[in-house]
Every structure is written in structure tokens, then in C-alpha cells.
Design a protein that fits this description.
Layout lengths: L2 H16 L2 H7 L4 H15 L4 E3 L4 E3 L1 H29 L3 E7 L1 H18 L3 E7 L13 E6 L6 E7 L2 E5 L1 H7 L13 E4 L10 E5 L2 E5 L3 E5 L2 H9 L5 E4 H9 L4 E3 L9 E6 L7 H14 L9 H26 L1
Parallel strand pairs: 3-4, 3-5, 8-11
Antiparallel strand pairs: 1-2, 5-14, 6-14, 7-12, 7-13, 9-10
């Protein structure tokens, strides 16, 4: 139904309820001329006269009475639906559908979801964790998060770089040596990440000058879970290329040492995405604002170049001192 027809029906119903076309115009915040024109258009469209108009009073024709009885309940239902939709748009309550990759949800996004739900207890989060690249429209996603590139057709915002950092425990490096070149990794016990969707072991990416180059290494331990891969590296079973979200706190605590830091790749990013900048429910707008406030550019999830260099140099100095002590005690 076209909007002018709906307005005409609403004008007719209001005029019948108030007994005055002029009062109906005032109630709908339109001019008397517009109200009269709307009623005339409705009668012309239906091909019947709905109201007898005189200078003193307004009365319904028989066709007008029947039309009022049929139209009034449906119009009331529609008006209630419109009112409810407006309230829903402004209320920070109701379902919030979130899509994210498994590897990023717990360390990065769950603290934000938790805080948002504590602020707004009426929110009903529906979190879908999936590493596949789905159709965000068909999946009815309110807010999504994707590593790599944002989906086509959505509004997106870059949150932070997803660094790829080669790292190992101090004990592993003491036993197997520290790689000085990318090619040296072929002689090391490397971990491997098997993509959950394709089943393929992913190559390691490195920054070489202004380019990103990929290298494949035969893994001694392989998994499709980033947390399990990190545990294997922490246990000293392998040297691994871990994403910065995982590696950053472990490097800062000294549990892992970054190597080949001049080749850390940052060509991938974490993106937030959503359908539109306009007509967003208040709950979606508020959640996006909180995500940007808490996550965008948050240094907890990546290491600055000086941090990487300092961690690598510090580990090198400590190994040098240990070697010197061993040499001295042996002589």
C-alpha cells in the first residue's frame, strides 16, 4: 500500500472518530486542505462516497460505515506495530546477533560483550563463532568481526593489525639455536596451523622489504586451534608463528621470545562490520561504540616495533651472559 493511501485512510478514520475533518487535520498535524484532498483521493480511489459533508456536521455514508468497521482494527494494529518498532529502535534491549572467528572471541571480544551485557541487562546476545566466511546478510548479523578483509557490501572499520610473530620459549632457543634468517626455519621444529574450513596447513607469511612472502615448513605438531598451537609452543615442542593477539601477552611476560622481528607481517587486520550507518537500533549503535572504545587500536593485542626489537635483543643478551658463565665455569 502506497504511503499516500495509508495517510488517506488514517485521515478518514480520524475524521470519523472526531466527527470533524478539521479536527482530524489538527490531530495529524496537516492542513485542513490536505486532509480534504486526502479524503477526496481515497473516495476517488475506492469509487464510493464515504462521508456526507455539510457546513455543520460530518456523517458517514453506508459505504463509509462499512469501510470504517473494516479498516479501523487493521489501522490500529499497524499503528501499534509502528510505535513498537520506534521504541525498539531506541531501547538498548533485545537480541544482538554477533558473528566472529573462534580465535578472536575469547581474548578480544568476550570482555566487551560481557561489559555490554552488564551495562544493559535486557540485551540478549546471540554469538555465532565460525571461521568460515559466511554471508552476513543471510546470517542476519547485527555486528560481525572478521580477520583479513571486510565482507563486501558492509560498513567496516579496522580495529587493529593482526601481526604474525615467530616466537619460541627461551628453553627451545637454548636447545635448538635462534634462527637468523627465514631460511633457517627449515632446520627447526615448526608448529603448523591447519585451516578449519579447508583442512590445509597454512604457510607462514613474512615481510621482506615492502612485500609479503609466504614460506611452507613441515610441521612437527599441527592443529586447527590457535590456543592449542600456542600451548605446544609454550611447552617447548616447537617454534611457531603466532598471531599477535596470542603472542603479545606471552612475549611481554617473557614466556616467549620473538625472533626474526624485522620480518613480522602486519598485512592482515581485524575488522568490525555492520549493515548500515543509518536506521540502526540503539542496541547495535551502543555495542559498536563500546567495541571501538575498548578494542580499536588497543595495544594489548599487538606489539610495537620497538617492543619486538627490545624483546629479541634482551633474550640475545641473556643467552650471551649464560654462555659466558658456562665458559667461565668450564675454564
Amino acid at each position: 500500500m502506497a504511503f499516500n493511501e495509508l495517510r488517506a485512510i488514517a485521515t478518514f478514520v480520524k475524521a470519523a472518530e472526531l466527527g470533524s475533518l478539521r479536527q482530524a487535520a489538527v490531530a495529524q498535524a496537516i492542513t485542513p486542505q490536505a486532509a480534504s484532498q486526502a479524503l477526496a483521493q481515497l473516495e476517488s480511489h475506492l469509487g464510493v462516497r464515504l462521508i456526507h459533508r455539510t457546513t455543520r456536521r460530518l456523517s458517514l455514508t453506508e459505504e463509509g460505515r462499512r469501510f470504517l468497521e473494516a479498516a479501523q482494527p487493521g489501522l490500529s494494529t499497524l499503528q501499534r506495530a509502528l510505535h513498537g518498532a520506534r521504541l525498539g529502535r531506541e531501547a538498548i534491549a533485545g537480541p544482538l546477533r554477533i558473528a566472529a572467528t573462534r580465535s578472536l572471541m575469547l581474548p578480544v571480544l568476550w570482555p566487551v560483550v560481557d561489559e555490554f551485557c552488564r551495562r544493559h541487562p535486557e540485551i540478549e546476545p546471540d554469538v555465532q563463532l565460525d571461521d568460515r566466511i559466511g554471508n552476513w546478510v543471510e546470517d542476519r548479523v547485527d555486528v560481525g568481526f572478521r580477520a583479513g578483509t571486510p565482507p563486501d557490501g558492509a560498513v567496516s572499520r579496522r580495529l587493529f593489525p593482526l601481526q604474525l610473530i615467530v616466537c619460541a620459549t627461551p628453553d627451545y632457543l637454548a636447545r635448538h639455536g635462534t634462527p637468523q634468517r627465514i631460511e633457517d626455519l627449515a632446520q627447526h621444529r615448526c608448529s603448523g596451523f591447519r585451516h578449519p574450513s579447508t583442512g590445509k596447513v597454512m604457510a607462514w607469511d613474512f615481510r621482506v622489504g615492502d612485500e609479503i612472502v609466504s614460506r611452507e615448513f613441515a610441521p612437527v605438531v599441527c592443529t586447527n586451534d590457535v590456543e592449542l598451537e600456542a600451548e605446544a609452543v609454550l611447552a617447548g615442542h616447537a617454534i611457531g608463528q603466532l598471531v599477535g593477539v596470542t603472542a603479545a601477552p606471552l612475549v611481554r611476560s617473557g614466556r616467549l621470545v620473538p625472533v626474526l622481528t624485522q620480518h613480522v607481517a602486519e598485512h592482515l587486520n581485524l575488522f568490525l562490520y555492520y549493515g548500515s550507518r543509518v536506521a540502526q537500533p540503539a542496541r547495535v549503535r551502543a555495542f559498536i561504540d563500546l567495541v571501538v572504545e575498548r578494542v580499536a587500536g588497543n595495544r594489548a593485542y599487538f606489539l610495537a616495533p620497538h617492543e619486538l626489537a627490545a624483546a629479541e635483543a634482551g633474550a640475545r643478551r641473556r643467552r650471551g651472559r649464560r654462555t659466558a658463565r658456562v665458559t667461565t665455569s668450564g675454564s
